[in-house]
Design goal:
This protein has 250 residues and is α/β, with parallel strands linked by helices. Helix 7 links the parallel strand 7 and strand 8. Helix 3 packs across helix 4 and helix 4 packs across helix 6. The longest helix is centred in the middle third of the chain and has 14 residues. The chain is globular, with a radius of gyration of 18 Å. The structure holds adenosine-5'-triphosphate (ATP). The site of adenosine-5'-triphosphate has 11 residues, from helix 1. Adenosine-5'-triphosphate binds next to helix 1. Pfam families: ABC_tran (PF00005). This is Phosphate ABC transporter ATP-binding protein PstB. InterPro entries: AAA+_ATPase, ABC_transporter-like_ATP-bd, ABC_transporter-like_CS, P-loop_NTPase, PstB-like. GO terms for molecular function: ATP binding.
Length: 250
């Protein structure tokens, strides 16, 4: 079964249609990149998968979004419960002004977990998965805000993983980072797909080519082409995709 599926999704901000009849399926344990010029709807589409667009006024969505075969817009699901299954990492690292430890433990504390050994284990496991443990293990009581931007972003990934989502959505997770931190995030994305299904919005085409299995190219709210990343970058079927990846627009 596909992990994520969109069927004929249309999205309107007021009168303005931002997504036009988008259908696509994403297999579990893969990395999928959404690419396309600014304003083409990549982030809007990404936000459909955790119902984050619900938080924006005047948004109307038609069509179906399925996660593990379950329609998340139609069935009577608990949206908060659902969002917990879907982790999200944003463009700018957004750690809480708390200690490194408390950032990672946050989701569990909200769930009511109080057992210190459970919290300790989860914090360590999540920081290891986010390839940050060795850098911070002696500083867990320090403020998360004392970390570098790249470390803060890995901390946010650890915080996301601590609550064990099955899907991680990433909206330009490395665009605010230096090349070394970007490389670390890319390595991490590659490793994480054994456990998670990852969808990443990126402006960086080399990044899409490096980390993703499949790539979806969007233009003016339409999904123009969706295929294996190798095909999109070496043998695209549509002229618009070809023009975009060769830098003729966008
Ligand atoms: N909250 C909003 N209210 C109204 N219109 C919006 C809102 N968010 C996005 N839009 C519009 O929807 C369209 C798609 O925007 P979106 O941010 O999804 O594109 P994008 O491809 O992710 O762009 P970028 O690469 O610049 O982040 C744009 O025309 C944008 O102006």
């Amino acid at each position: 079964m596909q992990k994520l599926e969109a069927r004929n999704v249309n999205l309107f901000y007021g009168e303005k249609q931002a997504l036009k009849d988008i259908s696509l399926g994403i297999d579990p344990n893969t990395v999928t990149a959404f690419i396309g010029p600014s304003g083409c709807g990549k982030s809007t589409f990404l936000r459909c998968f955790n119902r984050m667009n619900d938080l924006i006024d005047n948004v109307r969505i038609t069509g179906d979004i399925l996660i593990d075969g379950r329609n998340i817009y139609k069935s009577k699901i608990n949206v908060d419960e659902h969002r917990k299954k879907i982790g999200m990492v944003f463009q700018k690292p957004n750690p809480f002004p708390k200690t490194i430890y408390e950032n990672v433990a946050f989701g569990l504390r909200i769930k009511g977990v109080k057992d210190k050994s459970v919290l300790d284990e989860t914090v360590e496991r999540s920081l290891r998965q986010a390839a940050l443990w060795d850098e911070v293990k002696d500083d867990l009581k320090k403020s998360a805000l004392s970390l570098s931007g790249g470390q803060q972003q890995r901390l946010c990934i650890a915080r996301t993983m601590a609550v064990e989502p099955s899907v991680i959505l990433m909206d330009e997770p490395a665009s605010a980072l230096d090349p070394l931190s970007t490389a670390k995030i890319e390595e991490l994305i590659y490793e994480l797909k054994s456990k998670y299904t990852i969808v990443i919005v990126t402006h960086n085409m080399q990044q899409a080519a490096r980390v993703s299995d499949k790539t979806a190219f969007f233009y003016l709210g339409e999904l123009i082409e969706y295929n294996t990343t190798t095909t999109i970058f070496t043998n695209p079927k549509k002229e618009q995709t070809h023009n975009y990846i060769t830098g003729r627009f966008g």
